[in-house]
Every structure is written in structure tokens, then in C-alpha cells.
Design brief:
Elements: E1 3-13, E2 16-27, E3 31-35, H1 42-50, E4 57-62, E5 65-66, H2 71-77, E6 78-81, H3 93-96, H4 100-105, H5 121-135, E7 139-143, H6 151-166, E8 170-174, E9 185-188
Helix pairs in contact: 5-6
């Protein structure tokens, strides 16, 4: 059982205070949905949790210890999906994500030998999601994960999230898409 606790987080972007006094806790199996207008700081918060952006104030703890004190260890705890898809176009789908089970979970197993540059935007997003699944990290940080996904792919994504949570995984995702997770927490920035 893991516990991620954020207390009074603040982040600056340049000279601008993006947010302050953000606090939450997340236990194994929980999902936190970040909501807010464009520019409210959802991506900045995810980047701060990942250790990619320096926190201006506050604490982030993993199981009671400073999560950001040892960034290489913290990096092993997370699987990151940013705005840009982490797809290498010159490689095939399975060279990008060798785990066939992960490709199957997002419906890309039939495209395993196809060069990734030939995938549609939605298929590239699904390939990026497969990379997150294959990482087997306890904490998924997802920035607008449903961008470019059709309805069936959003359904698959939600199934993957539920499977991750059932195994004790935690998820923090920013989204403007209504996601029907009955037990998800919401944090509005």
C-alpha cells in the first residue's frame, strides 16, 4: 500500500505564480482527476509531482518520505504521459513498446510490425498509453491522456486505468474529457 501526499504545493512559471496551497493525498488504487481552465496549472502540477519542475513551496511525500529528495528513485515510481506522444516514428510499433500485452490492451497488436510514423494521431496516443502500461510503475501521471482518442479507445483507456487501480496502482490525470470513474477524486485548479 503506497501513499502519495502533497501539502501546500506552489509552482512558478517564469515570474508568474501558477498556483499555491495545493494539497491532496492518494492511496494505492485511487485516481485523482485534475480539472481547470487552460493555463490553470494542471500540467505544471503533474510536472512538479514528477520532479520535472521545481516546487516553489510545499512538500511531496511518498510513503512518508520526501519523494523528490532522490529523483532517480522517484522516476522509477512513475510512468509519464505528457502532451507530446513518446513515439519514435522510425521504429515499428513493437519496437516502441515491446510488451505485446500492453499493445493488446490498447488495441494495437495488429499493428506491431507497422512503422510508427504511419499511425494516426489517435493510434500514436494509444501507443504512448501502451508505454505507460508496460512501465509497470505504481503511479501514472497522465496529461490529457484522451487527446485524439475515439470513443472506443477512451473505453479501452478507462479499462486499463481500472486494471491498474485494481492492482494497487495510482493515477493522476488532467483532462477536459468527462471520465466516468465513480470513485475518482477531483482537484480543480
Amino acid at each position: 500500500m503506497h501513499l502519495l501526499t502533497a501539502a501546500n504545493l506552489a509552482i512558478f512559471r517564469g515570474e508568474r505564480l501558477v498556483f499555491r496551497d495545493i494539497s491532496f493525498s492518494l492511496r494505492s488504487g485511487e485516481f485523482l482527476v485534475l480539472r481547470g481552465a487552460n493555463g490553470a496549472g494542471k500540467s505544471s502540477l503533474l510536472r512538479g509531482i514528477a520532479g520535472l519542475t521545481k516546487l516553489a513551496a510545499g512538500t511531496l511525500n511518498w510513503d512518508g518520505e520526501n519523494a523528490l529528495e532522490d529523483l532517480p528513485t522517484h522516476a522509477k515510481r512513475i510512468a509519464w504521459l505528457g502532451h507530446l506522444d513518446a513515439v519514435k516514428p522510425a521504429l515499428t510499433v513493437k519496437e516502441n513498446v515491446p510488451a505485446l500485452a500492453a499493445l493488446r490492451s490498447v488495441g494495437l497488436q495488429a499493428y506491431a510490425e507497422l512503422p510508427a510514423r504511419l499511425l494516426s494521431a489517435g493510434q500514436k496516443r494509444r501507443l504512448s498509453l501502451a508505454r505507460v502500461i508496460a512501465a509497470k510503475a505504481p503511479l501514472w501521471l497522465l496529461d490529457e491522456p484522451t487527446t485524439a482518442l475515439d470513443g472506443a479507445s477512451i473505453g479501452r483507456f478507462m479499462e486499463c486505468c481500472e486494471a491498474h487501480r485494481a492492482q494497487g496502482g495510482m493515477i493522476i490525470a488532467s483532462t477536459h474529457t468527462p471520465l466516468e470513474f465513480s470513485t475518482a477524486k477531483t482537484l480543480t485548479l
